[in-house]
Amino acid sequence: MSPPLALGQAVHEVLESLSIIETQHRFDVPLHERFEQAWQKVRGEKGGFTDTHLEDLSIQKGKEMLERVTKHPGPLTRLAVKINADLPHYWLSEEDGIILCGKIDWLEYFPDTNQVHIIDFKTGKTEESSDSLQLPIYHLLVHNCQNRVVSQMSYWYLAKYDHLTPQEIPDLATSHEQILKIAKQIKLARQLQRFSCPTDGCRHCRPLERVIEGSAHFVGNDEYSADVYILPDGDKAREEESYIL
Predict the structure, then answer these.
(1) Distance between CA atoms of 220 and 212, rounded to whole angstroms?
(2) Does some domain include residue 175?
(3) pLDDT tens-digit profile of 52-66?
(4) Do residues 230 and 217 touch, judged by C-beta distance below 8 A?
(5) DSSP string spanning 54-116?
């Protein structure tokens, strides 16, 4: 856990909770009040905060983003589809024993065409790379976990824009082939217990390596019963500039 993840978790919880509320009542409770409740789950060391200044900064960033949504709610005022699963998933390859799973931030529903619009909320200043696999994965999940066709896909950079940033819809067959190839590589690496890093270590692995080394602090378990650790001496300057949801 780290401050960027804590902020993302809290903002995501607030916005996701709106999708199961009837459209006319979604903003009956101010978003900042929902945020204060969600923040209790990541307050202090539970969110990787080692000082009150960084936590106060994160809280302020979260409230600013939710204030933007309150003033410019856009698709959040319209009908939404909620996939009936805590964690949407399907067989990416039953033959290989591989399941693809993931959570979709928002599915806007178009009743006139019975189609859906995938919306992914972002809190970072840096925009998503064009070769990111996030939208291809989301497209596969939505296509296989409900019956409506995906007609639009967008990012919403909550820290920067009042409006959505439309994205091209990835080809399903290409996405399936690309992601299955990676999934098979992951499966084989796990079976052989041979994890060869092409960059000889990266920012994604180093924190986990420190957990194994015993230099991280255990703070509890998350909603999926996974162990949660924090690195008290993390790079705060980088954290403040890298909020991602």
Answers:
(1) 16
(2) no
(3) 999 999 999 999 999
(4) yes
(5) HHHHHHHHHHHHHHHHHH--GGGGS-B---SSSS-EEEEETTTTEEEE---SEEEEETTTTEE
3-state secondary structure at position 218: strand
- CB distance 141 to 90 below 8 Å: yes
| Amino acid letter for position 94 | E
pLDDT tens, residue by residue, 213-231: 999 999 988 877 889 999 8
6, 49 in Cβ contact below 8 A?
yes
Task: Give the DSSP letter of residue 169.
Answer: P
CA distance 49 to 221: 16
Name, in order, each residue with C-beta under 8 angstroms of 134's C-beta and a sequence gap of 6 or more: 120, 128
Domain that holds residue 220: 3-71+197-240
Residue 184 belongs to some domain of the structure: no
